[in-house]
Amino acid sequence: MTVPSLPRVHILYEYGIDTRPHTPSYLRFIRPFTHPTIAEQVETTFGWDYQDQPVDLVILERLWRPDVSLPLVEKLLERIHQAGARFVYALDDSFFDLARENKGWPHPGLLPIIEFCLRQAHAVIVTTPVLKARLDSYNPNILILPHALDERLLVRRFASPGEHLLTIGYMGTPTHDNDLQLVLPAIRNVCRHHTGRVQFQIIGAVRNEGTKKLLADLPIHYIPLDPRETEYPLFMLWFSANTRWDIAIAPLRDTPFNQCKSDIKFLDYAAIGAAGIFSRCPAYSTSVQHQENGWLAANSPEAWEEALETLIVDPNLRWQLSSQANSYLYTERTLAQRAPDWVTIVHQLLQS
């Protein structure tokens, strides 16, 4: 009897000039495909390039390499097709909307590369239904694979009871100045109402010096990161072990780019046992159940102030939101439960 061979997948992860994988690469492919629950179900290799080895699928992620160009990608696809493999493209952000909103990144030369990959791919893997809808015109075969956290990178704990300085936190990449400014009036009022009782902590998220000046008179502490801990696996270990926030916020402006984003901050905040406040938007409207495992706030200073004030004065509600979010994470959205989804996707791609 012939034993069926394992599906063979080669993943071209996105990397920078240091050749280290970017955060989405770890989150979307490296951690899932190396998870022990599926390690023996798919034969997976990773690399900077494809060297014509015999595989069934080649998955190219986002912008691939720092020197990416259309000729490079065209040659890559030619080699993949010559080897008889299927080309799959993976995207977790609406780069076309980002270019219009950001006016500088990604630069115009990258957009034709993304469009080429979308149109030439046998299939496209995305993170959210809204992103799929945004990209449907580029490819008829788009599959949705939501984020899941690798529980091996999480230090599970719960907030300890007792009186302490209440901490409100915000974490993200240093591109969210506009989102944070959305809730700045609410933050100012909360600080004034609770002088000496509340502090804010920020990890990343703020790059613009103008934003820092607006925050300068508030009790805000910027948490520095050791450069050796910024790579995703080490960061998540550090973040989940050391961050002790009572409340965590995730404001998100209502823009076409943000509408396509995922609920990853909800998962991150659930991992540290914080009660989360999130903008009422597509990113969070499915996984966050208002006043059950999180708080959904309209994008107005009044709504955010109400949310902050309510959670500051109600420790029981904070505990409910944080414990329900943590339970949802560990029962629904860790790789211990979700890693088989990646195997399912592989089989779908090979059968379609």
Question: Can you characterise this structure?
Answer:
The protein is an alpha/beta fold and 352 residues long. It has two domains: 8-148 and 335-351, Glycogen Phosphorylase B (Rossmann fold), CATH 3.40.50.2000; 151-332, 3-Layer(aba) Sandwich (Rossmann fold). Helix content is 41%, strand content 16%. It contains 14 helices and twelve strands. The chain has helices spanning 23-33, 70-82, 95-102, 111-120, 129-135, 177-182, 184-193, 209-215, 232-242, 256-259, 264-271, 301-313, 315-332, 335-351, and strands spanning 8-12, 43-47, 57-61, 86-90, 123-126, 142-144, 166-172, 198-204, 220-222, 247-250, 275-279, 295-297. The strands form two sheets. Strands 2-1-3-4-5-6 form a six-stranded parallel β-sheet, with helices on both faces. Strands 9-8-7-10-11-12 form a six-stranded parallel β-sheet, with helices on both faces. Strand 5 (123-126), helix 5 and strand 6 (142-144) form a beta-alpha-beta unit. It is globular. The protein starts with 7 loop residues before the first strand and ends with a helix. The mean pLDDT is 91.
Short note summarizing the structure:
This protein is α/β, with parallel strands linked by helices and 352 residues long.
Labels describing this entry:
alpha/beta, 2 domains, 352 residues, globular, 12 strands, six-stranded parallel sheet, Rossmann fold
Helices and strands in order, then pairings?
Layout: E1 8-12, H1 23-33, E2 43-47, E3 57-61, H2 70-82, E4 86-90, H3 95-102, H4 111-120, E5 123-126, H5 129-135, E6 142-144, E7 166-172, H6 177-182, H7 184-193, E8 198-204, H8 209-215, E9 220-222, H9 232-242, E10 247-250, H10 256-259, H11 264-271, E11 275-279, E12 295-297, H12 301-313, H13 315-332, H14 335-351
Parallel strand pairs: 1-2, 1-3, 3-4, 4-5, 5-6, 7-8, 7-10, 8-9, 10-11, 11-12
Helix pairs in contact: 7-12, 11-13
